[in-house]
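Repro:
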Amino acid sequence: MSNTDPLEKNLQITFDDHSLLERALTHSSYVNEHPETILEDNERLEFLGDAVLDFVVGAYLYNRFPEMAEGELTSLRAALVRSSTLADFTRQLEINHHLRLGYGEEENGGRERTPLLCAAFEAVIGAIYLDKGLEEVQALVEPMIGPKLMDIREKSLHKDAKSEFQVWAQAKFNVTPHYVVVDESGPDHQKIFTVRVLLGKDIWGTGSGTSKQSAAQVAAREALEEIRKVNAVLDEAG
């Protein structure tokens, strides 16, 4: 039983060239700390996997929503291939448990860092594409993006909530929302930011995320939800 057998079971794929999968799991920090190794890092496979994922997800959306406009297709694809989504897929398949990381990266929590996990998923996709072809990539990816797509559409996670809220605020009050970081917690490699969105001095929403930008988007979505609730009450009263 090779070291990659448990992961191959999770992927439901048996590689012909196991060195491709081993390379996909090898972070540059490991190669830097082990100059004697013959392994390459996964950066080239990450580059390839990124392009393959864009195509697979784009084709999936194109075929599933034949009447959807190009702009919304683009927004949905961006939401499905964003770093946090791909990091979730990495954890779901337990790819993170099999990564080769340097000691420093390991100690700094690299096995849970979203950018690193995103890159690892893309690298594994690149390895699958080279070893098995496009159909195997589709067989792995499409069942994973189906449930995620449903969640994204239900919560409007593919829309730019900040832009949408700004358009509403300027039309309603002639005021531009401003965002304030009210809290930062966690170690440097796993920071959680809490952001409030205000119109003037009034708080309209609060959100948390692994970056200030993502937290601001959550806050804006909360503000938009409040607007929808108020509008629903007014519609019922009217």
